Amino acid sequence: MSNRGDSSVPLLAGRDLVKAHGRTEALRGASVELRAGEILAVTGASGSGKSTLLHCLAGIVRPDDGAVVYDGVRLDRLPEKRLSELRRTDFGVVFQFGQLIPELTAVDNVALPLMLGGADRAGARERAGEWLERFGVRGQEELRPGELSGGQAQRVALARALVTGPKVVFADEPTGALDSLATEQVLTALVHTARESGTAVLLVTHDAQVAAYANREVRLSDGAAVPAEVAA
Ligand SMILES: Nc1ncnc2c1ncn2[C@@H]1O[C@H](COP(=O)(O)OP(=O)(O)OP(=O)(O)O)[C@@H](O)[C@H]1O
Ligand SMILES: [Mg+2]
C-alpha cells in the first residue's frame, strides 16, 4: 500500500533504531517520522548520531535493531539489490563529506544519476546544467571536483541529489561550507522542491538558522531523538 497521497501517514519512519559502531552505541532507540513534503531538521551535538541516523533511514547502513519503514516497505529487511534500486529511484543523498566522483566534471556528476536511470547523455547534461544554475554554480560545469571550492562542490552534490526528482532527500550538513548567500539560495531551493513536488527532506544541521527553514526539528541526545522544544 502506498502512503504517498496521505500526508497524515509518514512516508518514512525509523522506529527504535539501534546502531553501534564497534563499542560506540551511536543510536540507542531513536525514532523519527517524515511526511511527504515535510522538511525535518535533525540537530544534536557532534557525535550524537545524526549521520548514523541518516544512513540508517536512507538504507545505506542496516540498523542492529529497530525498523525503517518507507512507503509501507521494511527497508531494513529488503535484499541489497532491491534496496539499491529503490535508493536510486526514490532517494537523493547529500553526504556530509562530499563523495563526488573525482574523474567526472561537475555537470557529469549531476547527470550520472539520470543516466543510471536510463536517460541519454545530452538530455541528462542539460537537466544537470539547470540544477547547477539553480544553485548558483553556472560556469563551473566542466570543472572536476578537485578544481571546485568546497562550497561549489557542496552545491554540485545537492544538485546531484535533487536532479532525479526523488521522493526523499537526505542532506547531511549540506550548507556547512557555504556563505550566507549561498546557504539561503540552497535552502530556498530545498523548500521550493518540498512544496512543489512533495519531496520530503531530512536536513541534518548544527546551525539553528538552517534548522529554522524546517517545518519541524528533532534533536538527538544520548542516541535517541526528542522533539527540539522538549530538548531545549
Ligand atoms: N565508522 C565508524 N566507526 C566507529 N565509530 C563511528 C563510526 N561512525 C560513527 N562512529 C561513532 O558513532 C558516534 C555517532 O557518529 P555520527 O557520525 O553519527 O555523529 P554526528 O552526530 O553525525 O556527528 P557530527 O555532527 O560530528 O557529524 C560517534 O561517537 C562516532 O565516533
Ligand atoms: Mg555527522
Automatic annotation (TrEMBL):
PANTHER family: ABC TRANSPORTER RELATED, IMPORT ATP-BINDING PROTEIN. It comes from Streptomyces griseochromogenes. GO terms for cellular component: plasma membrane. This is ABC transport system ATP-binding protein. Keywords: ATP-binding, Nucleotide-binding, Transport. InterPro entries: AAA+_ATPase, ABC_transporter-like_ATP-bd, ABC_transporter-like_CS, ABC_transpr_LolD-like, MacB-like_ATP-bd, P-loop_NTPase. GO terms for molecular function: ATP binding; ATP hydrolysis activity; transmembrane transporter activity. It comes from the Bacteria. SUPFAM superfamilies: P-loop containing nucleoside triphosphate hydrolases. It holds the Pfam family ABC_tran. Residues 12-232 form the ABC transporter domain.
